[in-house]
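Glutamate-1-semialdehyde 2,1-aminomutase structure dump, as promised
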Amino acid sequence: MSKSVDLFSEAKKFIPGGVNSPARAFKAVNNNPIFIERGKGSLIYDVDANEYIDYVGSWGPMILGYNDPIVIEALQRQLMKGTSFGAPTELETTLASMVVDAIDSIDKVRMVNSGTEATMSALRLARGYTGRDKIVKMEGCYHGHGDSLLVEAGSGLTTLGIAGSPGIPDQIANETIVVPYNDLDILENVFKNYGDEIAAVILEPVTGNMGVIAPKVGYLEGLRELTDKYGSLLIFDEVMTGFRLAYGGAQEIYCVEPDLTTLGKIIGGGLPVGAYGGKAEIMDCVAPEGGVYQAGTLSGNPLAMTAGITTLRLLQRANTYDYLEQKAEILEEGFKANIKELDIDATFSRVGSMFTIFFGPGQVKDYKSAQSSNTDAFAIYFNRMLEEGIYLPPSQFEANFISLAHNDRDLDKTIVANYKALKEVKGNILK
Ligand SMILES: *Cc1c(COP(=O)(O)O)cnc(C)c1O
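structure tokens r here:
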């Protein structure tokens, strides 16, 4: 019996499902979660002293790798001054000004404690600013677990959303309209029917939460035009992509400016932070300047701000995103060569340092095509990678992250493991 198995049984006695966030439970890959002891650079170590090359990166934040010495030292210095005051500190202005400098579409930004809080607050602001109630989201995009956003597509011809979880009132789910990602025609129809009721369209500009899918050429521009035409706000949820795909996020790469942007993950440098920002005219509707209420006891927490500031400063070093791209290209080449040599139905999808291998034939462009992936094949792949010492997100429908700490040796080992795992998939699926 491994210590992880024991700790999981113990955790289940006191925590629902033994975890504080469902994906950690490894259910989708029919396995037990691994309990982590510590991390260093690209590596994590479990309580049984196994070492893994990690591509989860705490689900996105750890772009520098684990336990970066400069971040840790900054945190230690702040720790000695105090962990929380609930009063303004200069650190909040420093991080806010860094976000405003990084992202052209943001004039002002409010710090919160998670990505969920950022998107919930951005929706309230969009509704308060426009005086409209309906929200449009894309099928398969994840924006945290707020009621309005934990909504699935209705069946048949209805576009009004249905609750994505027990506990979400139908009246709230019905205010969210769900459309396919990468499809402007369906969205245009929705606008024709509901245009003057739609407060905002929210999406992951590059998706990570149904696996990595890039926007089609002209898609984001089309969203910008449609929302402008109907007086709705465009919200880019860059909780995952912000400071990940480029320092200025997906909007820097695709040159489309949203009205509001939500951030999280990397701006917290591994501590709990979210943020939402945008045009001053809209952001000034937030209390105490305006009437849209939003608050937080620990918002702008000095330790969290310190981790964020230090992480962003380190990302500002020369060539950061070129280095990430080079590492990602090495993995892409290696994985694609393996897929080709083994003649396996799998698609490697990547944008910058985010990637997913979809086990299925053909290009993945939206939720429906992502869902056609073979999750049994993924489970075999995942478990074999784990045996080979490679720690991946435990679901087909997630993004893998490459960090600045991954070195050539890590990448080579990963490519070799990938070959063995794909071969095992092939052997099992053909049986
Ligand atoms: C992770 C994520 C969220 C939720 O952030 P939490 O900090 O987990 O609440 C929201 N949107 C996107 C795009 C995310 O990737």
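The two ends are 30 Å apart (CA to CA).
lmk if u need the other ones
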